[in-house]
């Protein structure tokens, strides 16, 4: 996927800490904050597919399904797969991108 939205789906594996950063975990740890967040944010999540992509190291190319993609955050299943791949392959390539598409 290339285009003007690519920058929304890129992350720097050295700077972005994905461990435990699931948006759902953070939202649901503080119930008071949930009431402050507009329902439209929650409504933006839908089932869909996600992917990891690297031109430099195709071992990092992967994809899968999630019950909740949206909100410009990495889907939980994608995050888990990223952590598994880090254990398997070591440091991710610097061109690694992630993205999702709602059904």
Fraction of residues in H or I helices: 25-40%
Q: Tell me the fraction of residues in β-strands, as a range.
A: 15-25%
Class derived from helix and strand content: alpha+beta
How would you describe the shape? Answer: elongated
Q: What distance separates the N and C termini?
A: 16 Å
Mean pLDDT: 75
How would you sum up the major sheet?
A: 3 strands, antiparallel
Low-confidence stretches: 1-14, 16-25
| Rg calculated over all Cα atoms | 14 Å
Number of domains: 1
Number of strands: 3
Q: How many helices in DSSP terms?
A: 4
What is the string of helix and strand elements? Answer: HHHEEHE
How would you summarize what this structure contains?
The protein is of the alpha+beta class. Helix content is about 30%, strand content about 20%. It has one domain.
Sequence-ordered SSE layout with sheet pairings:
Layout: H1 23-29, H2 31-36, H3 39-43, E1 46-53, E2 62-69, H4 76-89, E3 97-102
Observed structural traits:
single chain; about 100 residues; alpha+beta; 3-stranded antiparallel beta sheet; 4 helices; disordered N terminus
Could you characterize the architecture of this molecule?
The protein contains four helices and three strands. It has helices at residues 23-29, 31-36, 39-43, 76-89; strands spanning 46-53, 62-69, 97-102. The chain has a three-stranded antiparallel beta sheet, covered by helices on one side. The chain starts with 22 loop residues before the first helix and ends with a strand. Residues 1-14 and 16-25 have low confidence and may be disordered. The protein is an alpha+beta fold and 103 residues long. It has one domain.
């Amino acid at each position: 996927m290339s285009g003007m939205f690519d920058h929304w789906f890129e992350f720097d594996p050295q700077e972005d800490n994905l461990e435990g950063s699931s948006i759902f975990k953070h939202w649901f740890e503080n119930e008071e904050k949930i009431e402050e967040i507009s329902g439209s944010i929650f409504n933006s999540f839908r089932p869909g597919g996600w992917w990891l992509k690297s031109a430099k190291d195709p071992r990092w190319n992967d994809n899968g399904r999630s019950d909740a993609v949206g909100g410009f955050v990495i889907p939980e299943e994608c995050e888990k797969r990223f952590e598994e791949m880090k254990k398997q392959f070591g440091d991710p390539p610097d061109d690694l991108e992630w993205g999702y598409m709602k059904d």
